[in-house]
Amino acid sequence: MYDDDLFRALPQAEDLRHYIERGRPVNHFLTAVLENDLMAAFARADAGNKAALENYLIWLKSYAPIAAYGGAENVAAWIARGGIEGR
Question: Is the confidence at residue 29, as pLDDT, over 90?
Answer without folding.
Answer: yes
